[in-house]
Amino acid sequence: MTAGDGARGTRDSSARGNPRGATEARARPRGGQAVGIDLGTSNSVVAVIDKDGAPRILTTPEGSTTMPSLVWFSPDGPVVGELARAGLDYSPDLTIFGAKRLLGRRFDHPEIRRLSRVLPFELVEAPNGDTWIALSAGRSVSPEEVCALILREIRHIAEDHYGEPVTRAVITIPAWYDAAQRQATKDAAQIAGLTVVRLLSEPTAASLGHGAHRGADRRYLVCDLGGGTFDVAAVDVQAGIFEVLATTGDAFLGGDDVDRAVVDNLIRDVRSARGFDITSDTIAVERLRLAAQNTKHELSDVAVSKVYVPELVQLPSGRAVEYQKPMRRDELEQWSSSLIRRIEAPIREALRRCGRKREDIEEVLLVGGMTRMPVVRREIARVTGREPHVIPNPEEVVAVGAALEVARLEGAIEGVLLIDVAARGLAVSLGGDCEQVIAQSSVVPTREHRVFGTRHDDQLRIEFDVWEGESPDPAQNRLLSRYAVLDLPPAPAGDVLVLVEMTIDTDGTVRLGASELVSGERLQLEQLYHAGLARTDVLRLQRQFAETP
Ligand SMILES: Nc1ncnc2c1ncn2[C@@H]1O[C@H](COP(=O)(O)OP(=O)(O)OP(=O)(O)O)[C@@H](O)[C@H]1O
Ligand SMILES: [Mg+2]
Known about the structure:
Layout: H1 5-8, E1 10-11, H2 19-24, E2 33-39, E3 43-49, E4 55-57, E5 67-68, E6 70-74, E7 77-80, H3 85-90, E8 95-97, H4 110-118, E9 122-125, E10 131-135, E11 139-141, H5 143-162, E12 166-173, H6 179-191, E13 195-201, H7 202-209, E14 218-225, E15 230-238, E16 241-250, H8 255-274, H9 282-298, E17 304-314, E18 320-328, H10 329-335, H11 337-340, H12 344-353, E19 363-367, H13 374-384, H14 397-409, E20 417-421, E21 426-429, E22 435-438, E23 443-444, E24 446-453, E25 462-468, E26 478-485, E27 497-504, E28 510-516, E29 522-523, E30 525-530, H15 535-547
Parallel strand pairs: 1-4, 2-12, 12-13, 14-19, 16-20
Antiparallel strand pairs: 2-3, 3-4, 3-5, 6-7, 6-8, 9-10, 10-11, 14-15, 15-16, 17-18, 20-23, 21-22, 21-25, 24-27, 25-26, 26-30, 27-28, 28-29
Helix pairs in contact: 5-6, 6-15, 7-14, 8-9
Bound molecules: adenosine-5'-triphosphate and magnesium ion.
Residues 40-43, 100, 224, 226-229, 254-256, 293, 296-297, 300, 368-370, 372-373, 395 line the site of adenosine-5'-triphosphate (ATP).
């Protein structure tokens, strides 16, 4: 197999409950099967590695290799994936798309404020400052729970393929995800009954899925433009070692934004051509958005198409009003030009961070459905100064990489090593400025420590905050958690020295420990605040999910 073969995969044509999978079950170690999952903003994909080593993308019950990351909270309970599309039409306020964008995000984040103005469903602030989604019945759900519903559906697809339980997964995440977003992804998986064996950054997964470990040594630039985010990573592959040198991206740039820009223009067209304003009619806007998205897809292949909505609104008489408008590729490109311009900065920043010039890049890898758009390819070619490598399945390659990582962790693939870097620095503060403990782009896993001394006689506890970011100014960083070191021994001020150890794991998860410097005795740490769901809520939801399969 040469570089690139890994990306192709095999379509799963097996019937549900495949009997071959059942016989394989006996040979497997206890603890269930593991799969690779690309939990995407728009689409999620699940892949496995067949016994002969070939990657296989599993298909949804509808026969598709990608499952829309959609959950419709219908009156009869949550509907997930393709079937949830009906909800977009009937009750857009209860049909959640793009939950990945909300995962681990604070409600006061400027982009969340902006999103809440344009989304057809309502965002609300959770008591700890997280972003949740309000469902009209007076109930709200966390994005973790929405993602858990998607992951559970994926688990079912995989279990139908294997004919036995699937309990573990490698899940891919944007490389720039902070610790709160990583933890939120893990919590969603746990609620869905999946143990995350590793979170893998999407660009690493893409280069692995592309078959880079089998090809020649190369300096890659991975550009992944999906539904919600734009991710850029400089990845070096040398003798089977994958090293992510730098990662950047735009967390709020993707196909959804292009769709919205098109819809804004179409709403104006409806107003001038038909004389009515549909701005506040969520159903009409949603129908327009879906039609616009279809047209966008067509315009990647043809220069002219049309937007067609059979029933945009209903007149008081009950008569349906249809809407159609011819649309040209150059119009689409013009309407999305301000978004396309945002492709340049993260690419330049990625090169800057790893001290490379664009001539140093040997291959530009295009990932994500939006890279099918010709203007996106042109812009990436212009900024990088080279023709990008177009792969046949830009939406599937990340999941293939995740499945290969499962095989690697199980020892089926040898001679491949993935080296990742910390997306953000880690800092601590004791009420004042932040002090950097782990620098951004440090190779993970990594461990550092700081020593805190007591300031008063007989001080019993020391409280400190943990931040993600690089600035000494706390306001520029993100508060991850607040801790208290408890039960300090009574002593004069400054005599008790506490060693706080911070670890960033291979997949970017942050762990803390505390001990007394002199005696080496472990000290108890109490977490006073942390972003994301409380452990008790994760466990409660996990039980609840297990009871209603
Ligand atoms: N032929 C096409 N032309 C243009 N855009 C397309 C085409 N096919 C898919 N897309 C767009 O690609 C986006 C989805 O891409 P993809 O499935 O890679 O995203 P994702 O992995 O769910 O998102 P993310 O990686 O941001 O989490 C959508 O905006 C979709 O409209
Ligand atoms: Mg993606």
